[in-house]
Write a structure and sequence with these properties.
The chain has 355 residues and is an alpha+beta fold. It has helices at 18-25, 30-56, 99-119, 168-182, 190-212, 270-273, 279-292, 300-309, 319-334, 338-349; strands at residues 13-14, 72-76, 86-89, 131-135, 144-146, 151-153, 222-223, 238-239, 248-249, 253-254. The protein has a six-stranded mixed sheet, covered by helices on one side. It has a two-stranded antiparallel ribbon with strand order 7-8. Strands 9-10 form a two-stranded antiparallel sheet. A hairpin with a 3-residue loop joins strand 9 and strand 10. 54% of the residues are buried.
């Protein structure tokens, strides 16, 4: 089945999970609570709008002439909650005076390059989709998101969260929601939603590793390193190496991600825990990548990409379905060897069956 022939169901995906913002919104300090509450209210409204769009369904755009160069445009929302905002940077412009604009431009380019050079994919939809972004969105907006058409970045509150263009893996994470939107189209709920989130963490991490020239052993395997403010007790939003250890802060709370199915979190919040239980497939990928060594995008990443784009992954896939398809994809591409062995061992370690 041609994955691009599927109806596209875009979802509203943010890098900071709602359970984190919910805790912050209940803080006693209004300087913490008010920006979080505004962000949470905004995101809830956007999710409602996105659900309406999802019910209607969208289809990928018409085929266009593809190029090995990205086509990037950056807009500035001027601290209002509006998109796209004022156009401030085009593909061939010189670097802007605004560092946020330049980081957004570079992050879009790093994402485009990883998908093209590693997997032969032309942009998010595979057909050269222009990459658009809006920066300086809202007032102290504590999030970044892919809205189905563009990347949108808040500046953060400069206390708990800094500028959301700072970590390139955050940019790669959000844009990968677009790749998933145009391929496997995983439903954003429960285990399929956790797989959706995990895909974004996996390729967000690979984009950072590729841009830094890091091997699997050199990578930090953190998502959002450099995003947390200096007074936060934590290193990032999530850790693929050690899920549940990214932060443990008096204000943010403790990272709730499990590393194995033994600690799987059953909840009705966060679309069934999509940002929480994604720690399980995240950790499986980390185990595979580090077992194989070298550049993680070459073998482990290729297997994940093959499953995501292969047309066999159902929109409501559970962890076991993805795990089984990953083993089959490894066998198809690499034969019966260390790749397959690494997969079987990793999925077993996190408690996910491959049958």
């Amino acid at each position: 089945m041609d994955a691009n022939a599927r109806r596209v169901n875009p979802v509203f995906c943010t890098i900071v999970p709602p359970h984190v913002l919910d805790k912050l919104a209940r803080a006693e300090d209004p300087a913490i609570a008010e920006p979080a509450a505004r962000t949470l209210e905004h995101d809830a409204l956007q999710r409602t709008r996105r659900r309406i769009t999802t019910v209607r369904g969208l289809t990928p755009g018409a085929a266009r002439a593809v190029s090995d160069k990205p086509h990037r445009t950056i807009h500035d929302a001027g601290h209002e909650e509006t998109v796209p905002g004022r156009k401030v940077h085009s593909e061939n412009d010189k670097p802007a005076k605004d560092a946020t604009v330049n980081r957004a431009h570079a992050g879009l380019g790093a994402t485009f390059e990883l998908y093209l050079k590693a997997y032969g994919r032309h942009s998010i939809d595979g057909s050269g989709l222009p990459l658009n972004a809006t920066v300086h969105y809202g007032e102290n907006y504590d999030n970044a998101f892919w809205d189905g058409e563009r990347m949108v970045f808040g500046d953060g509150d400069n206390d708990l969260f800094l500028d959301f263009t700072l970590p390139v893996d955050v940019i790669g994470h959000e844009l990968t929601h677009g790749v998933t939107q145009y391929t496997a189209n995983l439903e954003y709920f429960s285990q399929s939603g956790a797989l959706n989130e995990s895909m974004s963490d996996v390729f967000g991490s690979l984009i950072k590793q590729y841009s830094l020239g890091q091997t699997a052993d050199q990578a930090d395997w953190l998502i959002g390193a450099g995003l947390l403010g200096p007074n936060v007790t934590g290193v990032a939003l999530r850790s693929m190496k050690e899920p549940g250890t990214a932060y443990d802060d008096d204000v943010l709370g403790k990272d709730p991600q499990p590393a194995t199915m033994e600690d799987y979190v059953r909840t009705g919040r966060d679309n069934g825990g999509v940002h929480i239980n994604s720690g399980i497939p995240n950790h499986a990928f980390y185990l595979v990548a580090t077992a194989l060594g070298g550049n993680a995008w070459e073998r482990a990443g290729q297997i994940w990409y093959d499953v995501l784009t292969g047309g066999e992954l159902s929109t409501t896939a559970q962890f076991t379905e993805f795990a089984g398809l990953s083993v089959a994809a490894a066998r198809s591409r690499f034969g019966d060897g260390e790749e397959q062995e690494a997969l079987l061992k990793a999925w077993s370690q996190v408690g996910v069956s491959t049958h």
